[in-house]
Amino acid sequence: MAPAALLLLLLLLNVSACSGFGFRSCAQNYNDPGRMWCLNRGIVNISEVVRMFPENTTLINLSKNEIRAVPPGSFAHFAGLKHLDLNQNKLLFLRGEEFRGLHLMQFLNLSCNQISHIHSDTFKGLVSLNVLLLSQNNLSSVSGLLFNLLPAIQAVDLSFNALKSFSCEECGSSSTLKHLNVSVNHIREVNVSCFPALKYVKLSNNSELELQSDVFESNQQLRTLLLVSVKLEALMGLSPQTKRNLSHVSFSMLAEKSPWTICDVLRGMDHISKVDLKGSKLPQSNVSLLDCPTPTTLIFMEAKLGNVARLSSGRRSTGKLCLTNCGLKQISNSTFEGFAALKTLCLDKNAVVIEPDAFRGMTTLRSLNLDRNRIRDIDPRWFLPLKNLTQLSLMKNEITELEPSVFHALTQLEQLYLQFNLLKSLKNRTFSNLFKLQRLSLSLNLICFIQPGTFQDLKNLRFLDLSGNRLRRVTPYILSGLDTLVHLILYNNRLQFRSYESPFVQLTSLEYLEMRYQGPGGGIGDIGPDFFKGLQKLRCINIGNSVKMNIHADAFAPLTSLKILYIDGVVLKDINLTAVLFPLKSLSKLMLNMADLDTLPANLLPPNNSLRILQVSSNHIHTLNKELLDNLPGLVYFDISQNPLSCTCDNSWFKTWATNNAKTQVVYLYNLRCDNNRSSRHLWQFDDKACSYDQISLMLFITCSTTDVLLVFACLVWHTQGPALRLLLLMAKAKLRGRKKGAGAKFQYDAFISYNSRDEDWVMGQLVPNLERPAPGAQRLKLCLHHRDFRPGAAVLENIEAAIYGSRHTICVVTRSYLQSDWCSVEFQLASLRLLCDGSDVLLLVFLEEIPERCLSPYTRLRRIVHKKTYLLWPENPLEQEAFWVRLMDALRDREESKEAGEIGGEQRLAP
């Protein structure tokens, strides 16, 4: 058993500490295993993909693929599926039973396809469906009583189709539907009376729509009605009750075509709180646009207001006013005179000229949006009245410079957005007095210089975005004062560091640092041993995509709390990754994509690491080290896609590991391609039977185990049936030598005497004289005796074999000593087997003493012969001994007479 035990030990020692699995063209969410993501993977055959998903899948996203059809019952084995997204595919028809068995599904997205027909049974069984999205298809009608099949439906989107009508008679009824979007169709008539729970209806961009006054009489819960680019008469003609119910309305008003004003339209809408006038063209000469009570929220988008001196003289209840792309050219202190209670003001995309006192009296304003207004200079006087402003956005303007203390009056400001401008530098005291500022965005400017002390007053700043600029230097003096900064973005600048620098030493609260894309020129430079000094709380670093980056072996030593590390798009093959990553015992996510890696070291991370996610896609890795994954016991997500993996025996272990286990997900496993022109296109198709370690180990284990079992069995049989086996071997040998009885065979002796040496006195004193030297006139026999007739120099077994097969009879002299002798047993067994071999019954048993049957029990064959045949017992009485010899001679003679005539003595031939 030693060989098998040794092999078993080796196999047990070789068991991998980790395991793997993967899917075709999809990835499983590593935080929620029930979520499957298959976005933009070129999937055509949906069945091949989903059959690999676990049965407990709850969400499947198959958007942005090439799926043309969904076979019936494709998702039937996902009984717990709740969310299915098939938008942006090429579906043409829904023929029925595509979603069979999905009784728990709540969300279904079929938008952005080419669906022109839906079978009446398509949605049968979706008893839990809440949301159905069918926008941007080619539907001309909704037939088959759609809503009758969906007892729990709450929201349906049928926008951007070719519907000509929408009525209860066509699509059925629903007592649960609350949200309906049928905008951008060709609808002329609408009947929604069978949807009593409706709260939101969007009918925009149905230019030929006609609404009856009582169309919404059955919809007492209707609060939002959107009718952009619909005839204004449709809204004006609604019943008073319907108008009173509305709280949010959207419509388009064309001044040159409409005899009504905005106030006329809003009349009767007593509970209105939000009005959206997107697409309206209002008169530019009005002194006041709204001479009636205004709603809480008022939105004008693309309304072409022009030079409106005053927007409203009505009640001061509006809290949010948006004037986006309305053509405003100037704002004065009278423009918002009727909106003293305003909290949010959006004036983006207007190219407006702002007078110094434009916001006078707007002390309640909290949020001000001045995006895309071509502002070049900021006047500090704008902000003097805005004592409570917390959010200011000046994005996408043409601001070239910020004067010191320009925002000094905004003492309550918490968020400031200045991205997409033309700033070239930041001066000291630019952000003075902004002690409560928490978020500052300066991205996508032209900043190349920041004066030390610029951020000195930002004592509560937590987020700073300086990405997309031209910064070359960042020093502790520039970043001084940012003691509470948590999130710093330096993406896409021209930073270059020297090995001795510690630029972030004062940012002791920093948790996230983004530094990718530094260039042009020499890249980010040298990441020295003190580069991250002071960043003990840092949890995430995103660095890379740089022409040149050298990382010192001790660079990451201070980062004791680091959880996520991205190093993408930089040459790392000459860097000792083992030394660099050794301090990162708490790391849970590591990205080394596009890093020009040829291999991954086995000890990539220190022992007892916490890594859960490893991504090394788009490198030059051909083979993987098994020890690498063994040393990552907590790994649950492994991405090695876009690498030229070798489909050879070196990776056969990885194929087996990745396809047969269920702990570590190998992302896009069934899309991993081979790097050669072998018959296998993908790694999973590679035939590794000839080199698979696991299969060879199993075969060796089975072979050695079987051999050991057979060996033990053979030893056991040899121990218990050794003599019989030896006799069988002798018989086989005798047959091969032609000693088996046949035509022309001769006997050399009349009888072979089998006896124990302790009984030799009786044999030589009694048996031999009476058989070989009888009284005159009696037949003489030729006997074969051990000591006299065995051939000297020959093996004992060969002599025994020759004696038995060379004698007509075998006389066994049985005593207790005979039964205990192994050689006597061999002689007896061989003689008894002659009957089986050539049909010759040659045995004669002579007992010299009485032997109880219990003593014969271990000798099965002897006991059987004693029970079946007569044997001779040597009498102790001398008077009976003469009769013994007569009976023995008769027994020998009787057997001889049964042979054919002509058999004489030991020299005669036996009959065939």
- Percent of residues in β-strands: 15-25%
The helical percent reads 10-25%
Q: How many β-strand runs?
A: 46
CATH architectural label of one domain: 3-Layer(aba) Sandwich
N-C termini distance: 49 Å
What is the CATH topology of one domain?
Answer: Rossmann fold
Class computed from helices, strands and strand pairing: alpha/beta
Can you identify the CATH superfamily of one domain? Toll/interleukin-1 receptor homology (TIR) domain
Show unreliable segments.
Answer: 1-20, 740-744, 900-912
The largest sheet, given as strand count, sense and whether it forms a barrel, is:
29 strands, mixed
Q: How many helical stretches?
A: 19
CATH hierarchy, class of one domain: Alpha Beta
Global geometry: elongated
Family: Belongs to the Toll-like receptor family.
Main location: membrane
Pfam family, one: LRR_1
Protein name: Toll-like receptor 13
Structure description:
This protein is an alpha/beta fold and 912 residues long. It contains 19 helices and 46 strands. The strands form 8 sheets. It has a 29-stranded mixed sheet. α1 (2-13) runs antiparallel to α10 and α10 packs across α15 (822-832). The longest helix is centred in the last third of the chain and has 45 residues, at 693-737. The chain is elongated. It starts with a helix and ends in a 15-residue tail after the last helix. Keywords: Glycoprotein, Immunity, Inflammatory response, Innate immunity, Leucine-rich repeat, Membrane, Receptor, Repeat, Signal, Transmembrane, Transmembrane helix. This is Toll-like receptor 13. It comes from Fundulus heteroclitus. It holds the Pfam family LRR_8.
